[in-house]
Design a protein that fits this description.
This protein is α/β, with parallel strands linked by helices and 260 residues long. It has helices spanning 41-51, 53-56, 70-77, 84-95, 132-141, 146-153, 167-179, 184-204, 218-222, 224-234, 250-258; strands at 8-14, 18-25, 28-36, 61-66, 80-81, 101-105, 110-114, 120-123, 213-216, 241-242. The chain is globular.
């Protein structure tokens, strides 16, 4: 895509649980921020925009929204909207032209994009099974934070089968495991494994995930145990498993660049 390196571009990714904002000047990121919005999408957006008001004073800039909650705000403000899978795919093609696949987990959605043999984009439906919301629910069930869940998972020695398609079934499985004496460490890792299984079976549907793979989204950025389960399950080499430092902002960056 063509770039105007003298023009500021603002990308705002409003997901089901978080808001991400990125301000760029050409290829240089000037400002970025990631916060939970707790369903107060418009209020959080206004707050975050207020924080960068001084950076945009007397500047020419473009604005584009993306994300599951971004369309409504885009309609309200009359600014452009870029569909999130498209935003991600276009930015990946620009920054990681040799990527074979992208796996992205959000608060309530999951996506896989295959690039080889023609672009094939897949996204889950309305169920939040195998997403960040599912991980949050399981941490609450164990009466621990997601950070504690992640730390425990890295100390596991055994993986148990846990349903991930439905939180109710998962809770039943977890309670049974705890009653049988399974450790929280093993249960935590098993929760992550169920997310991996749901992503692969529900989205890949038999198509092989191999070669250079980017892992994006909040759960795959913050949860090191989840990263481990994906890499080990897919048998991806250390060189081919890419966890970008700006994984949280790919959609926002893609939206801003496609609108620049």
């Amino acid at each position: 895509m063509d770039k105007n390196n003298n023009l500021y571009s603002l990308g705002i990714d409003l997901g089901s649980s978080t808001a991400k904002i990125v301000l760029s000047l050409g290829d240089t990121v000037i400002y970025k921020k990631y916060e939970r919005h707790f369903s107060q999408v418009r209020q959080k957006t206004l707050q975050m925009l207020g924080e960068i008001k001084s950076l945009l004073k007397d500047k020419e800039f473009t604005v584009a929204f993306s994300g599951s909650a971004g369309f409504g705000v885009s309609q309200m403000t009359k600014y452009d909207f870029v569909q999130e899978v498209f935003a991600t795919a276009e930015y990946v093609k620009e920054e990681f032209s040799d990527a074979n696949n992208v796996i992205e987990l959000g608060g309530e959605d999951a996506k896989i994009i295959f690039f080889k043999g023609g672009i094939d984009e897949r996204m889950n439906g309305t169920c939040a099974g195998g997403t960040g919301a599912f991980i949050d629910q399981m941490a609450i069930l164990l009466n621990i934070s997601v950070e504690e869940l992640d730390s425990l998972s890295l100390k596991s020695t055994k993986i148990y089968p846990i349903a991930s398609r439905c939180g109710v079934f998962a809770k039943t499985d977890i309670q049974a495991l705890l009653n049988q004496g399974a450790t929280k460490e093993d249960v935590a890792a098993s929760i992550y494994q169920s997310v991996v299984n749901q992503t692969i079976s529900g989205l890949a549907q038999g198509r092989k995930i191999e070669g250079k793979t980017l892992f994006l989204g909040g759960p795959l950025y913050f949860c090191k145990g989840l990263q481990k389960r994906f890499v080990e399950t897919l048998k991806i080499s250390e060189e081919d498993a890419i966890f970008p430092s700006y994984a949280l902002f790919f959609v926002a960056l893609g939206a801003s660049k496609n609108n620049a």
